[in-house]
Amino acid sequence: MKDSNCLSSRLSRVNLNLLVAFYALYQQRHLTRAAEQVNLSQPAMSHSLKKLRLQFEDELFTKTAEGMLPTPMAKQIFQLIEQGLLQLDQALASAHSFEPEKAVREFRVGIMDFMIHELVPYLVKTVNQTAPGISFNILYAKISSPEIAYKLLQEQSLDLALTQFEYQPNDKNCELLYSEELMCIADRDHYGEKDELTLEEFLDAPHVALSHREDEPILVNKRPESLGMNRKVIVKTPYVTTLPSLLSGTNMVTVINQYAADLIIPGTRLKTYHPPIAFSNLQICQIWEERKEHDPGIRWLRGVIQQCMQTRIAPQNPSTSQTGKTQ
Q1: Closest listed residue to residue 238, CA positions, set 110, 147, 118, 326
Q2: Confidence of residue 324 (pLDDT cuts 50, 70, 90)
Q3: What Cα–Cα distance (Å) separates residue 183 from each residue in 187, 188, 271?
Q4: From 111, 128, 292, 302, which residue has the greatest number of CB atoms within 10 Å?
């Protein structure tokens, strides 16, 4: 009881909002962006930083050309503050039930562009039928790794991100929605009506590489390189919807997931071809921050998205094994 009283006495002298400000500053390394993240003005965030420096008797962050860099003291206390805020957030979330039919809430969801055209309309219509007070802020998410996913979740204050990985991360905060085969798409007037490109055609063709970051085409380069081969990449783009205008009337080739190919090909002269190299299937996942693991609203949304995926997308694109290709 004595220890509990001491804890209460110590914490009563601390403004917990200052710890939230510290957490945002540590994440953003920029005063203005940190202020925006916690809905403060820049002067208010500067004032919070001054109070934090007095509280911890340390500079905490030093201004440099690369941003506000944490001091050794800030690095030392960050994990403890993060854990404390996560546990507080979980306690507050678990104290409230979520009734979707009565709830009024906006969810921020990061999503790949090819899913925006099919999944988002179906998701919104499905939710609106049973939870009319729920709204969505859909943001295009350029994600090529779990590390980037978690960074984006924090920077854009996303509740969920839907993305694709070469493998399913071994993480309790990442859920597999479905697995999907990679295909090639190209102009049928150049490559004909066959089902598979030859290895020579694949390597000789100029490639349009789908990328989630300008310097990193996703998933596809490593496999040919491991076999001592190289693609001739002449364009990198993160936007699936640009492919029909890029590929039509040319000999260019793109490696793309089956569902996205089926979405953009109708009404064009493009065709899908099996690649001559065996690629790993794409793992389409939803991912969220650990601090939102116990949020009942986000748990409900994850279940709705899982159901929508199974109903709308996954049954149309069952994973298939590839045979007869360069292994």
Answers
A1: 110
A2: very low
A3: 14, 14, 10
A4: 111
**pLDDT value at position 232?**
87
Condensed to tens digits (0 to 9), the pLDDT of residues 31-43 reads 999 999 888 999 9
Q: Where are the domains of the chain?
A: 2-94, 105-179+283-316, 182-280
Q: What pTM did the predictor assign?
A: 0.62
Asked if 67 contacts 269 with a C-beta cutoff of 8 angstroms, the reply is: no
285 phi, psi to nearest 5 deg:
-130, 160
The pLDDT of residue 200 is 93
What gap in Å lies between CA 297 and CA 299, rounded to an integer? 5
CATH topology of domain 105-179+283-316: D-Maltodextrin-Binding Protein; domain 2 (3.40.190)
The rounded Cα 151 to chain-centroid distance in angstroms is: 9
Contacts with 190 (C-beta within 8 Å, 6 or more apart), sequence order: 250, 251
Strand boundaries in 160-288, DSSP class E: 160-165, 174-180, 182-187, 206-213, 216-217, 232-237, 254-257, 270-273, 282-287
Task: Give per-residue pLDDT as tens, 233-267.
Answer: 899 887 888 899 999 999 999 998 888 898 899 99
Q: How far apart are CA 86 and CA 92, in angstroms?
A: 10
**Identical fold at 2-94 and 182-280?**
no
CA dihedral 177, 246, 232, 212 (to 10 degrees): -40
CATH class of 182-280: alpha beta
Cα–Cα distance measured from residue 266 to residue 312, given in angstroms and rounded to the nearest whole number: 18
CATH number of 2-94: 1.10.10.10
